[in-house]
Specification:
five-stranded antiparallel β-sheet
Length: 212
């Protein structure tokens, strides 16, 4: 007795009962959007434009990420932030809320064969809380001429209308993590500027890191 008709019918029913996974185009787009670099505009307490940025831990007690010297050299030269006027800078490195600046210029840092030891970099911190204002103006792909368009926004006094402010409003005291008072820690003094930062192991020596 031949069983082919029964087998075919069973396969057909199984196919009707199964569901094919369909990806939501909207969710795909939103997940991919996180990978698109954003336009970041910022102001600092002092003139740190030529100084190399690093990333601190949430409590600002240690360096958790820093660039390799080769990362500071781009197709158009050193990735020093662009001066937009009125004290505003256009980020080219990946500035964030936990950014600090080393007492070392982009040129000097880029000339090194490898990053300084972590302890040495910590001693080089010029300001561990340097940002006065940091704004996210959206994906870079939304602009045709970023510097020109951002300068126009600044001229209109519309930065906070057109961009999202990431730092606390002016005049409010920055609080220490854990509910303490305003952060009054002094700057580190030492002798002798994200799209890619290297992770730092807390116990690791910074001199051993290599380009990612």
């Amino acid at each position: 007795m031949k069983h082919w008709p029964i087998v075919l019918l069973t396969m057909a029913l199984a196919g009707c009962g199964s569901k094919k996974e369909v990806l939501d185009p909207a969710s795909e787009a939103s997940s991919g959007a996180a990978d698109i670099p954003h336009v970041l505009v910022y102001r600092t307490k002092g003139d740190y434009r030529e100084l190399v940025p690093v990333t601190l831990s949430a409590d600002r007690s240690k360096i958790v990420a820093y660039p390799h010297p080769k990362d500071l050299q781009g197709a158009d030269g050193l990735s020093v932030p662009q001066d937009l006027g009125k004290g505003y800078l256009l980020d080219k490195r990946g500035i964030g809320l936990n950014t600090a600046f080393l007492r070392m210029s982009y040129a000097d840092y880029a000339a090194l064969d490898q990053a300084p030891a972590l302890a040495d970099m910590t001693a080089m911190i010029a300001d561990n809380d340097p940002l006065v204002e940091l704004c996210d103006c959206g994906p870079r792909t939304a602009f045709k001429d970023i510097p020109t368009e951002i300068r126009a926004i600044l001229a209109e006094g519309a930065l906070e209308k057109r961009c999202k402010r990431l730092t606390a409003p002016l005049g409010s005291a920055r609080r220490r993590p854990g509910g303490g008072g305003a952060d009054t820690r002094s700057r580190h003094s030492a002798p002798l500027g994200l799209q890619h930062f290297l992770g730092v192991d807390e116990a690791a020596d910074g001199a051993g890191n290599s380009p990612g």
